[in-house]
Design goal:
This protein is α/β, with parallel strands linked by helices and 337 residues long. The protein contains 12 helices and 11 strands. It has a 6-stranded mixed β-sheet. A 5-stranded parallel β-sheet has the order 2-1-3-4-5. Strand 3, helix 3 and strand 4 form a beta-alpha-beta unit. The longest helix is centred in the first third of the chain and has 16 residues. The chain starts with 7 loop residues before the first helix and ends with a helix. Bound molecules: guanosine-5'-monophosphate and manganese (II) ion. Guanosine-5'-monophosphate binds next to strand 10 and strand 11. The site of guanosine-5'-monophosphate has 16 residues, from strand 10 and strand 11.
Amino acid sequence: MTLSDPTAEQWAAAVAAVRALGADDEIQLICHVNPDGDALGSMLGFGLGLRRLGFGRVRATFPGEFRVPDPYRSLPGSDLLVPEAEAWKNADLVMIFDVASESRLGGLAGLLADAPASVVLDHHASNTGFGGVRLVDPRAAATSVVAEQLLSRLGVELDSEIAECLYVALATDTGSFKFDLTTVAVHELAARLIATGLQPGEISRRIFDSRPFGAMKLAGEVMGRAVLEPGAAGGRGMVWTVATLDDLERYAQPPYVLDTLIDPIRSVAEADVSVVVKQVAAGEWSVSLRSKGAVDVSGVAVAQGGGGHRLAAGFTGYGEADAVVDTVRRLLDEYLN
Ligand code: 5GP
Ligand code: MN
């Protein structure tokens, strides 16, 4: 990995890439498949900023099914969102948000490859180094931190709509301001965002503390089948569970409701490593990994073609769920020995 914080040259190149555009030029924003709060929040907040600068042709998209998780449907700037089929095909500038590797762009990777200019905004330590101008800061708590810095360098003033997007991104990726990268600078940014008139309590209720009854019952069932293996991960302990498409169907829930299940699972005191294996299709699983500090789980994820951060990472696993868990168990042992 040869990543560092963006250099002065990289910031200048990103500013120049935007300033080179005319008001009628097309700007395509893209975030990762199965978008989360940071992906959508950083992308839409930046998109609103481009609008404030007078750019009239800005579209935002992500690969795969065009389904925005319910908590993020009311984000300001959602009118910028289009299904991937409606992305500008010959955009003058492509901007990528919160994407650690090109595989997370699915069918939109070609758009980036063909773009006359591109800027990548990200904060994953595992970022693979794709794209034109690269603003990748592994020390940033969220991609929205990078997005806010670029907006500021472009002379965009924060307003309550931009701020809400960036705040939701920051609050989700820091686990409501409790993860390790929650620095003084993060709280200072949050303060500036809130100062535009945000209501953090109302936003938190909407984003974190609101879900359908069926999703709550489903979570109970999936948590109820969790397995604790105190001897795994070199004796640091691993806790894991599996959620299937059948589970989703029984409770009539969309896939994204499984994405927060890692939070109660990772709270288990007897395990350093936590794993949630979520079925995507027959023989295909989206795997969430977390560590409390003893293990760099991004190493495990990268070894399986995924990525992420030291303490939070993921990958796509194939075959039976048990075999996916076996693979994680083995890679953890290899890592720790
Ligand atoms: P989550 O478990 O919340 O889906 O993801 C945790 C972290 O790992 C996030 O930073 C996310 O971007 C990253 N991540 C999750 N799944 C994948 C994957 O399949 N590929 C890559 N490159 N990163 C992933
Ligand atoms: Mn992120």
